């Protein structure tokens, strides 16, 4: 994995945290699984999300372990969402229990996605008459 991170940093000037987030997630949004390397449109909709929000945990803002790859839609739906209370210390959450924390956030985001998809269908119906 470190070879891939190094290549992204050298060839494409990714910073280490961004490269690590792409490699760890295999280029997919950690929340919904969309392939952000599928085409240029999805690639440009990729965001680096702070798993623990920087507004509440500013000490982890620049910690690469706190960065994950997200699509713009999931990042917007997550916004400054936090799991409160965390079942672990903040440091343990992003180092030891990162996958579990992502799974907790995924559940919440999936519910938000369902609601927003219903909204989208209604808007589409209004605009296109479908």
Secondary structure topology:
Blueprint lengths: L1 H11 L3 H9 L15 H5 L1 E5 L16 E5 H7 L11 H6 L2 H31 L2
Antiparallel strand pairs: 1-2
Provide a descriptive summary of the structure in words.
The protein has 130 residues and is mainly α. Strands 1-2 form a two-stranded antiparallel ribbon. It has helices at 2-12, 16-24, 40-44, 72-78, 90-95, 98-128, and strands spanning 46-50, 67-71. The protein is flat, with a radius of gyration of 16 Å. Helix 1 crosses helix 2.
The share of residues in extended strands comes to: 5-15%
Strands side by side in the biggest sheet: 1-2
Average pLDDT rating: 95
Describe the main β-sheet briefly.
2 strands, antiparallel
Q: Which residues sit in consecutive blocks of at least 5 with pLDDT less than 50?
A: none
Shape label: flat
Total discrete domains: 1
Distance between the termini: 46 Å
Portion of residues within helices:
40-55%
Class per helix and strand makeup: mainly alpha
**Number of distinct helices:** 6
Nearest-angstrom radius of gyration? 16 Å
